[in-house]
Design brief:
The protein is α+β, with helices and mostly antiparallel strands and 568 residues long. Helix content is 39%, strand content 25%. The chain has three domains: 4-137, Rossmann fold (3-Layer(aba) Sandwich); 170-402, Phosphatase 2c, domain 1 (4-Layer Sandwich); 407-565, Heat Shock Protein 90 (2-Layer Sandwich). The chain is built from 17 helices and 21 strands. The strands form four sheets. It has a six-stranded antiparallel beta sheet with strand order 6-7-16-15-12-13. Strands 2-1-3-4-5 form a five-stranded parallel beta sheet, with helices on both faces. It has a five-stranded antiparallel beta sheet with strand order 8-9-10-11-14, with helices on one face. A hairpin with a 4-residue loop joins strand 12 (306-310) and strand 13. Helix 1 (4-11) runs parallel beside helix 6. The two termini are 24 Å apart.
Length: 568
C-alpha cells in the first residue's frame, strides 16, 4: 500500500466486523488489520455475524460470501433490514450480473476479489470508511445544531423563534441551486455562465441582516443587501418589513413586465419611512445587474464597498453613493458600471469586514486578498473563520464568479439506464479526473458525484420515488423492480466532464443529465429538503463536498463544481 499511515489515521478509531468461515483466512486478515482498527470482531459465518452485531456496534463490515449456515449476501440482506448505512466490503471469487445487481442494491460498498490482494483490500477499506467519516461529520453537525438550538431556547421565547423562521421564509433567492447561463454571442466559444453562492450567518435568532436575489427577466437580476440599524428586536422588525416589501414590489413589477429600479427605491423609501422610529436608519444596497449586456446599476445606502475582481487581477472598490435611509426623505442617485472585464463580485454586510480578531486586527485588512483567492462564498467564509475568533455581528455574503470560458479538457459520456453501465461510468469519471487532483481529493469528490449519478439513474430515469423505494426494500421487491424497469427503459444518462484553468487553480465541472421528468428545484430551499421524489441525501453530501451544485429549471440536470489547487 502506498501510504499505510494515512489509512491508519482514517480507521484508528473505528471498529470492524470480519466474517469468514475459513479459520486460516480469519487469522491472517486479523493480523493484517489489527494495526489499523481500534477493535476487530470476528465471526465464522453469517449467523454468528448477525449475533455479533446485536451487541457490538461496528463502523465497517468485511465478509466472505460463500459460508455455511448463512451466506454473506443473505447476512447482508438481514443487516439491511435494520441498518442501511454501515459500509460493507464483500470478499468473493464469484461475480455475475445477477450477483452484482443484488449486492449493489443491498448496499455493498466495495468488492474485493479472491485471492485477496492486500493493497486492493486496503484501498477498498479507505474508500468505504470515507463515507463513515462523512456521515459521522454530518451527524456531529446535526448534534451540534441541536445543542445550539437548546442553548438558544434558554434565552428566546417561542414567538422569537417563529419570527426568525418567518424572516428566513421572507428571504427570496431565485439563484438557489441555479446558475446564470447567458445566451451565446457570435464571438464566444461557449456561453458565459455566472455562479452565485451565499453565506447568511445571523448572530442571534432575530437578525438585523437580510438579503434577496430576484430574477427580473432572463439574464437580469436584482440583489438586495439590507442591514437595519436600531435597538434589538426593533431593527429585526425593520429588516423583515423591508425585505418583505421589496420582494412584493419586485414580484408585482415582474408580473407586469415593467420593473424600474428608480420606482422600486422610491416606493420602498415611501413605505419604510412611515415605519421607522426617530433613532432608526436602514443601510442597504440595491444592485441591478444585466449579465447579458455586462451593466451594473446600483444605489448603495451606507453599505460596505462592493468588490469587483477584473480579468487583469485588479480589484475595484465600488463605494456607497447615498446616505442611509432615515425617517425624513433624502434624494438618492443611481450609478452605473461596465462589468465587461469583471470576473468576480463580492457583496457583503459590515459584519464581515468590521469583525476584530483577538489580535485586534480587522478582517477588512484581509478581505481583498481572500476575495481574490476564493471562488465561492463558502470558501471566503472559511478564510474569515480561520482568521477571526468570533463573529460579533450578523454576516451576509453574496459571491458571484464567472466560469472560465476555455476548457483545457472536455469529455462526453452517454450510457443506458443500467446499473452496470452506471458503475462503469463512475469508474471512467474517476480515472479521468484523477490526473487533475490527489487520490484523497478524488475519493471524496467521487463520493458526491456517485450519489448524484445514482440519483439520475434511480430517481430520474427509473422514476423511483423515495417512499416507494423504502416500501420495495422492506418487501424485498427492490431488485425485481429495478431489473424489470431496466429491461423496458430506453432512457439515457449523459455525463459531460470539463476542466478549466483558473489562475493557480483548476475548476472541475461535471454535468449529469437524465431523461426523466425532473423535479421542482425550488423544493430544495425547504428545510431538510422535504420532497417526495428523492430523499435529498445525495444533495446534502454534495453540498458539503463541492464548491458548487446547480440544477437546470426542469430538475433533470445537475452540474458539480470543484476548485482544485494545481500541484507545485
Amino acid at each position: 500500500m502506498n501510504n499505510p499511515s494515512r489509512l491508519k489515521d482514517i480507521t484508528s478509531k473505528l471498529t470492524v466486523l470480519y466474517v469468514e468461515d475459513e479459520e486460516l483466512f480469519r487469522i491472517t486478515i486479523e493480523r493484517k488489520l489489527k494495526d489499523f482498527f481500534r477493535d476487530i470482531i470476528l465471526a465464522k459465518d453469517g449467523v454468528e455475524g448477525l449475533e455479533r452485531l446485536k451487541n457490538n456496534p461496528v463502523d465497517l463490515i468485511i465478509t466472505d460470501n460463500l459460508m455455511p449456515n448463512l451466506s454473506g449476501l443473505d447476512m447482508i440482506q438481514e443487516i439491511r433490514k435494520q441498518d442501511t448505512k454501515t459500509p460493507i466490503i464483500l470478499v468473493t471469487g464469484f461475480i455475475d450480473t445477477e450477483f452484482l445487481i443484488r449486492a449493489i442494491n443491498l448496499g455493498v460498498t466495495q468488492f474485493v476479489a479472491k485471492p485477496i490482494n492486500y493493497d486492493n483490500l486496503y484501498k477498498a477499506i479507505e474508500i468505504a470508511t470515507q463515507r463513515v467519516i462523512l456521515e459521522n461529520l454530518e451527524r456531529k453537525t446535526q448534534e451540534q445544531e441541536l445543542e445550539l438550538l437548546k442553548y438558544r431556547e434558554k434565552y428566546h421565547s417561542l414567538q422569537q423563534e417563529r419570527a426568525f423562521r418567518k424572516e428566513l421564509n421572507i428571504i427570496k433567492n431565485d439563484l438557489y441551486f441555479k446558475r446564470i447561463i447567458l445566451k451565446k454571442q457570435a464571438h464566444e466559444d461557449i456561453a458565459r455562465q455566472w455562479h452565485c453562492s451565499v453565506v447568511f450567518k445571523p448572530l442571534d435568532i432575530m437578525s438585523g441582516d437580510s438579503y434577496s436575489i430576484r430574477e427580473i427577466q432572463e439574464g437580469r437580476y436584482l440583489f438586495i443587501l439590507l442591514d437595519a440599524m436600531g435597538k434589538g428586536l426593533s431593527a429585526s422588525v425593520t429588516t423583515i418589513l423591508s425585505t418583505s416589501y421589496i420582494n412584493h414590489f419586485v414580484t408585482q413589477a415582474k408580473q407586469r413586465g415593467d420593473f424600474s429600479l428608480v420606482e422600486c427605491i422610491n416606493a420602498y423609501q415611501t413605505f419604510i419611512r412611515e415605519e421607522l422610529l426617530e433613532d432608526e436608519i436602514v443601510c442597504l444596497s440595491f444592485i441591478e445587474i444585466d449579465f447579458q449586456s455586462n451593466i451594473m446599476r446600483y444605489a448603495m445606502f451606507s453599505e460596505p464597498p462592493l468588490l469587483l475582481l477584473k480579468v487583469n487581477g485588479e480589484i475595484q472598490k465600488v463605494r456607497s453613493n447615498n446616505q442611509p435611509v432615515m425617517k425624513f426623505p433624502l434624494p438618492f442617485k443611481i450609478d452605473e458600471i461596465d462589468l465587461g472585464d469583471v470576473k468576480k463580485m463580492l457583496f457583503y454586510s459590515d459584519g464581515l469586514n468590521e469583525c476584530f480578531s483577538s489580535k485586534d486586527k480587522l478582517y477588512e485588512e484581509h478581505i481583498e486578498a481572500d476575495f481574490a483567492d476564493s471562488y465561492t462564498a463558502k470558501e471566503l467564509y472559511s478564510h474569515f473563520s480561520r482568521l477571526m475568533d468570533l463573529a460579533t455581528d450578523d454576516i451576509t455574503i453574496i459571491f458571484l464568479s464567472l466560469m472560465p470560458s476555455k476548457a483545457i479538457f472536455h469529455k462526453d459520456i452517454t450510457i443506458n439506464s443500467r446499473i452496470k453501465e452506471v458503475s462503469k461510468a463512475a469508474d471512467e469519471v474517476s480515472t479521468t479526473i484523477s490526473s487533475y487532483m490527489s487520490e484523497q481529493e478524488c475519493i471524496v469528490f467521487m463520493s458526491a458525484m456517485t450519489e448524484l449519478l445514482f440519483n439520475a439513474y434511480e430517481h430520474g430515469n427509473i422514476e423511483l420515488e423515495a417512499q416507494e423505494k423504502k416500501r420495495l426494500i422492506a418487501e424485498d421487491l427492490y431488485d425485481n423492480y429495478l431489473s424489470r424497469n431496466e429491461d423496458s427503459n430506453n432512457k439515457k444518462i449523459h455525463i459531460v466532464i470539463g476542466v478549466y484553468e483558473n489562475g493557480d487553480h483548476r475548476i472541475i465541472e461535471i454535468t449529469i443529465t437524465d431523461e426523466g421528468r425532473g423535479f421542482d428545484v425550488n423544493s430544495l430551499h425547504e428545510c431538510g429538503t422535504n420532497y417526495s421524489q428523492f430523499s435529498g441525501r445525495g444533495v446534502r453530501i454534495a453540498q458539503n463536498i463541492l464548491d458548487g451544485i446547480y440544477y437546470n429549471q426542469k430538475g433533470n440536470e445537475v452540474t458539480m463544481i470543484k476548485k482544485i489547487k494545481k500541484e507545485a
